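Morning - S-adenosylmethionine inputs below, output right after.
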Amino acid sequence: MLNNLLKHSDSKIVCIDTFEGGIEHVHDAINMTHVREIFFSNVEKTGRMDSVRVLEERSDTGLLRLLQENHESFDFIYVDGSHYATDVLADLVLSFRMLKVGGLCICDDYLWEGQSDPRHSPKMAIDAFTSIFSEQVQFVPVINTQFAFKRIQ
Ligand SMILES: C[S@@+](CC[C@H](N)C(=O)[O-])C[C@H]1O[C@@H](n2cnc3c(N)ncnc32)[C@H](O)[C@@H]1O
């Protein structure tokens, strides 16, 4: 993203991650300390550390922090944290308040089938959110298992 999306030197990105992993990481026994190291090493390689703000906390806490700061609105939001529907719904409701009209939101793992309980997958939350906010969002077609929408009002 830093290399391909944030081409303007004034562009900024905020990343919110606990770096504690989610259900999918526990299942696959992924070493999150290593993931965290790779993340910071990749950011460093771009030479754009100053363009990145990292909030190492739950996304709901981080998003509320940004809202309280009256953070300027975002052109692009990528929702790919906790896969629990309750968390994804909170991520969408909170982050949408900071998405510009005309801005794009991409939700990862819309068609993720890692869990038999649908409440443990993002799809239910994304469907609920886009139904409730149907007058403010416009579906944008994407080619993989993600879901994308544009804010239209
Ligand atoms: C599927 S990974 C995706 C990471 C990153 N978006 C990427 O594409 O490499 C999900 C990430 O969400 C983080 N995570 C899980 N639950 C979270 C929560 N409630 N708040 C913030 N981050 C969370 C995990 O630590 C993990 O790094």
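Note: The two ends are 26 Å apart (CA to CA).

O.
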